[in-house]
Design a protein that fits this description.
With about 120 residues, the chain is an all-beta fold. Helix content is about 0%, strand content about 55%. Strands 2, 4, 5, 6, 9, 10 and 11 form a seven-stranded mixed sheet that branches. The chain has a four-stranded antiparallel sheet with strand order 1-3-8-7, with no helix packed on it. Strand 5 and strand 6 form a beta hairpin. The chain is globular.
Length: about 120
Amino acid sequence: HVQLVESGGGLVQPGGSLRLSCAVSGYPHRDSTYCLGWFRQAPGKEREGIAGIVVGGTQTYYAESVKGRFTISRDNAKNTLYLQLNSLKTEDTALYYCAQTTGWSGNYWGQGTQVTVS
């Protein structure tokens, strides 16, 4: 059973940066196709996938809305997924989730961490 716990959210001014972390446990470490991703949901909007990574490789994927500003990475030794958020905009305000994914579909979810840009 995969468990994910996010941290690192907060209040930041436009143009600022944050780094989100997601502690992951319970996934099959030897599965090189295992994928993890970051999603966000703003008030009144649907949840959207914004970044994904293959744990056993180097492939990363980004939504157009964050490409060039956000960077997904993972530290397999620490079982931790990261999302570096740079050049933040007010429209990036949302609840951010990490998830174990199949494509852009989440199978297991964390509880979310709030990012507010104001």
